Amino acid sequence: MKRHLLSAADLSRTDAELVLETAAEMLALADRPIKKLPALRGRTVVNLFFEDSTRTRISFEAAAKRLSADVINFAAKGSSISKGESLKDTALTLEAMGADAVVIRHGASGAPHRLAHSGWVHSSVVNAGDGTHEHPTQALLDAFTMWRHLGNLDGRRVAIVGDVLHSRVARSNALLLQTLGAEVTLVSPPTLVPVGVEAWGVETSYDLDAVLPKADVVMMLRVQRERMQGGFFPTPREYSRRYGLDARRMATLQDHTIVMHPGPMVRGMEITADVADSDRSVIVEQVTNGVAVRMAVLYLLLSSDSQEDTSL
């Protein structure tokens, strides 16, 4: 793998499959009495989160600790960033601390790229979500979950449904899943389709009921009201009626089709509770797989230049 993971587009099919295969080995650790490897002992991973996060931050922290790395959690609130410190000065502080990897979540699209290519730090940079741009490790864990249930993704049909406009998860998944051979359809109201989506190479549809029976995977997205100014749809009830996944719609799915959600879910809005908790749902499994995938990413980024034995 390259030195940084900034975009799903950076990953070739060989790179992506290497991450998935490594994650499968990492997942096997969960069955061991001691769930740790010495692979990154002596390395320091900094979680630099300018936006609130639960799943992603904890997942990266758990991943680094299971690889025996030292972890520093750096939240914007309560730090010098809240006093006006710039990204550059924060980065120089991290460099002085000897960080080997910086996992960054930032509200501005492109911030991880800026950090990686600025010369401010010499550590590996992992994009944990930047604005409405990308979230590559979420796409990797989603692909890993599909891979474990469906096997090879060549020709598999994946429907990504909801607020595509504001979803960095949708963009990263669209890029990565096509790299792995899947066919992606984005389903959303016309007001929530990004400008220039044609360049993504995906199908688009406004009709959820027409897409569902053919899908092998249905991934529901949260409506990100915190990123909205103005009315993108009439009412939450109308949105749920047109684009929500309920028991009636779930009954139209093929027997093998799985239901996914990157979280956090708004039950009753984009997905009903009975669907979220059904046998088809792999939403909790996605969280478990997230730790294994992020272990794989950190391992592949940081162990490659180590002289120590990092075999599993």
TrEMBL record:
Residue positions binding L-aspartate? K83, R168, R222
Q: Which domain of life is it from?
A: Bacteria
Give the record's keywords alphabetically: Pyrimidine biosynthesis, Transferase
* GO CC annotation, single: cytosol
Q: What Gene Ontology molecular-function terms does this entry list?
A: amino acid binding; aspartate carbamoyltransferase activity
Note whether Transferase occurs among the keywords: yes
Q: Which positions fall inside the Aspartate/ornithine carbamoyltransferase Asp/Orn-binding domain?
A: 155-301
PROSITE patterns, A to Z? CARBAMOYLTRANSFERASE (PS00097)
Q: Give the EC number(s) listed in the UniProt record.
A: 2.1.3.2
Q: Where does carbamoyl phosphate bind?
A: R55, T56, R105, H135, Q138, G263, P264
One Pfam match, given by its short name, reads OTCace
Q: In which pathway does it act?
A: Pyrimidine metabolism; UMP biosynthesis via de novo pathway; (S)-dihydroorotate from bicarbonate: step 2/3
Could you describe the subunit structure of this protein?
Heterododecamer (2C3:3R2) of six catalytic PyrB chains organized as two trimers (C3), and six regulatory PyrI chains organized as three dimers (R2).
Entry similarity comment: Belongs to the aspartate/ornithine carbamoyltransferase superfamily. ATCase family.
What protein name applies here? Answer: Aspartate carbamoyltransferase
Organism from which the protein derives: Nocardioides euryhalodurans
